[in-house]
Specification:
The chain is mainly α. It contains 7 helices and no strands.
Length: 205
């Protein structure tokens, strides 16, 4: 009976792993479609604004690509909350000014795909380490997490925000906190401090 129970349990784990793989594959395909659609939409809207000289701002990234060249090269000062980020973010975002504004929308959207994949992978590692090897993540729970995360990701893509860029080191810091070694205890503090130096809001964390 014990042998048969072991085979049954092994088969159930294998079936759950297959369902997880299917859910992740579908989620990744949806992510690629989402990134492509929002990138093309933003690209066309920015190009249309430039062509018609419209004063409307498509999203935050469009506003930043207009402000950053003046701040980087013309030494323009901070003016209100048009760019509410510390100077280190100014330097980090500088590469998006090296390409035309419509192309910057596509480039920034594509850069977010590996960020999302890494964040989700780290989150699953955190959950598995906390639950233990005998409690794998249920496929339904995985699907619910992905569904709940859809709206914030769509908003980040559409607004051209930097939230995912800050979330990655935060999640990496939490993952390292689960490791007992001394270097791993120092690294989380540095990783959590990094997004705070990029934007003030992670200080709440």
């Amino acid at each position: 009976m014990g042998f048969l129970n072991g085979i049954t349990r092994s088969g159930a784990v294998s079936s759950a792993a297959q369902r997880q793989s299917l859910i992740l594959a579908v989620a990744f395909a949806l992510l690629l479609v989402l990134a492509s659609v929002t990138a093309v939409q933003s690209d066309k809207r920015v190009a249309n604004n430039l062509r018609t000289h419209s004063p409307a701002t498509v999203n935050d990234l469009a506003r930043w690509t207009e402000l950053l060249p003046h701040m980087l090269h013309d030494h323009a000062a901070y003016d209100g909350d048009a760019f509410p980020y510390p100077p280190i973010t100014l330097a980090l975002m500088a590469p998006v000014t090296w390409v035309p504004q419509p192309a910057a929308q596509v480039l920034w959207a594509l850069c977010k795909i590996p960020l999302i994949v890494l964040i989700f992978w780290l989150v699953t590692r955190i959950v598995r380490a906390a639950a233990g090897p005998d409690h794998p993540i249920h496929p339904l729970a995985l699907a619910l997490v992905l569904f709940a995360w859809l709206w914030p990701i769509v908003g980040d893509f559409q607004q051209g925000q930097t939230n995912l860029l800050m979330l990655l080191p935060l999640v990496a810091g939490l993952r390292l906190l689960q490791r007992p070694t001394a270097p791993a205890q120092l690294a989380p503090g540095l990783l959590i401090a990094l997004p705070i130096s990029l934007k003030v809001t992670p200080l709440i964390f």
